[in-house]
């Protein structure tokens, strides 16, 4: 009886996977917008590809696979049958490149397909919001095909695609971070005006102090571990420049004229930007290809292996600390893109996530018969740009590829991974762009007083 119920449940789930987004919403969830469920579902595909990539690059996985009887070439046999699978071919940094190539190609395909979709009345909107089982099959097919791409120059060329895509995704992260910082400050100041102002102002003060304290501690540690008294001039210059820039934006944020033009600007936003800038600086210095100035440098990875050593010659986990923090930020930002529109119209315009006319005035419909489901909120206009959303996920795929491989460049001739200066300058320049963006949000109302920057 239980088996029969299980089969029926499986068939029901299969029919949902072939249907639209409303069917994917479980009964325990509240009624939700169709557009939100769709974005979360595509994000789940990206997270699934990320999880597979992480498993492929974990040290020791290849050794465990060789223990499976009759699976890997050269592994244990099963009833005298030798394995036929080359386990080394789908593990290590090359497999991460192929897996992320597959997810990037998947989102690129749907980005092209969804160009100029204006509302859910467009037949292509049904493809965007449904047919999840077939989308999953397409992703699997692209992934299998990616592992048949000949080595040649693929990883070397794809590395530069990854650098450009990761740089663009870092800029998207910075835009979201600046928007988040301004929204956080505005909400707490609004709450302070409505009542119990001492508690809200105390909370703002405490978080600001914490963020600045962590940032100062980070600067000290960067000077201690990534500089030497008799060298490492580049590292000293990069740390000092970003420290000076962070002090400048912090001072500008509390200037009287800036406060008059933007009463909600303050040190909380500046402290968040400062903390993120210090993280990007740390991540940049972790890629400096100089063993003397970079104690965390991973210097060699033979062939497709996931075993590496540090500059001191000791075995280490493949991911360094900046990569782990970057992975967490990637997950938060990608989830943020999927579920939220900004409180600021200009950010929505920049990110192409303006709410549709239907969303501006409609309330959430009541569940029909107690059944919770997603409802179509895009009949009069899409709530986000489908193509731009897929483009963001494409960039996220490239960013996670670079993060999981520590931004190291594969060297086909020597079968090594090397840390190039390219990664250092891409990261450090992204921090400068982020500081300029934040500075622009502060001074723009002064430069263009006739425009509305609320």
UniProtKB/TrEMBL annotation:
Q: Quote any Pfam family the record assigns.
A: Serinc
Which keywords has UniProt assigned to this entry? Membrane, Transmembrane, Transmembrane helix
* Location of the protein in the cell: Membrane
Q: What's a GO cellular component annotated to this UniProt protein?
A: membrane
Show the stretches that span the lipid bilayer.
Answer: 40-61, 96-117, 129-149, 155-178, 199-225, 237-255, 267-285, 321-339, 388-408, 428-448
Keyword Cell membrane among UniProt keywords: no
For membrane topology, the record states: Multi-pass membrane protein
Signal peptide range equals: none
Which PANTHER family does this entry report, sorted A to Z?
A: SERINE INCORPORATOR, SERINE INCORPORATOR 2
Give the family, as the similarity comment puts it: Belongs to the TDE1 family.
Q: This chain belongs to which protein, by name?
A: Serine incorporator 2
What organism does the UniProt record list as the source?
Phrynocephalus forsythii
């Amino acid at each position: 009886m239980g088996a029969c119920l299980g089969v029926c449940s499986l068939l029901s789930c299969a029919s949902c996977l072939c249907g639209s987004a409303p069917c994917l919403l479980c009964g325990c969830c509240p009624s939700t917008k169709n557009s939100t469920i769709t974005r979360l579902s595509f994000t789940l595909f990206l997270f699934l590809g990320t999880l597979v990539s992480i498993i492929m690059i974990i040290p020791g996985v290849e050794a465990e696979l060789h223990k499976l009887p009759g699976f890997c070439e050269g592994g244990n046999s099963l009833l005298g049958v030798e394995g036929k699978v080359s386990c080394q071919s789908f593990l290590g940094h090359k497999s991460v490149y192929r897996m992320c190539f597959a997810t990037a190609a998947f989102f690129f395909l749907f980005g092209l397909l969804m160009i100029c979709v204006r509302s859910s009345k467009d037949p292509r909107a049904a493809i965007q919001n449904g047919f999840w089982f077939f989308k999953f099959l397409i992703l699997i097919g692209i992934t299998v095909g990616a592992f048949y791409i000949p080595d040649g120059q693929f990883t070397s060329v794809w590395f530069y695609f990854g650098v450009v895509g990761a740089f663009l995704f870092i800029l998207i992260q910075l835009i979201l971070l600046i928007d988040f910082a301004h929204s956080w400050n505005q909400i707490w100041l609004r709450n302070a005006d409505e009542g119990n102002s001492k508690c809200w102002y105390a909370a703002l003060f405490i978080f600001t102090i914490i963020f600045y304290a962590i940032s100062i501690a980070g600067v000290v540690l960067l000077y201690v571990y990534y500089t030497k008294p008799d060298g490492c001039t580049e590292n000293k210059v990069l740390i000092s420049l970003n420290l000076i820039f962070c002090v400048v934006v912090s001072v500008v944020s509390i200037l009287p004229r800036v406060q008059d033009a933007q009463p909600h600007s303050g040190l909380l936003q500046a402290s968040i930007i400062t903390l993120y800038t210090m993280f990007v600086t740390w991540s940049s210095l972790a890629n400096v290809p100089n063993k003397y100035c970079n104690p965390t440098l991973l210097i060699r990875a033979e062939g497709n292996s996931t075993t590496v050593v540090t500059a001191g010659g000791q075995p280490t986990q493949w991911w360094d600390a900046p990569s782990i923090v970057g992975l967490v930020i990637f997950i938060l930002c990608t989830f943020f893109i999927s579920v939220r529109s900004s409180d600021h119209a200009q950010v929505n315009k920049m990110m192409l996530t303006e709410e549709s006319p239907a969303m501006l005035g409609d309330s959430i419909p009541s569940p029909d018969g107690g059944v919770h489901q997603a409802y179509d909120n895009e009949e009069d206009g899409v709530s986000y740009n489908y193509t731009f959303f897929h483009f963001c996920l494409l960039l996220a795929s490239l960013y996670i590829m670079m993060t999981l491989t520590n931004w190291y460049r594969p060297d086909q001739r020597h079968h090594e991974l090397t840390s190039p200066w390219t990664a250092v300058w891409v990261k450090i320049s992204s921090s400068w762009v982020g500081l300029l963006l934040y500075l622009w949000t502060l001074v723009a109302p002064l430069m263009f007083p006739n425009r509305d920057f609320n």
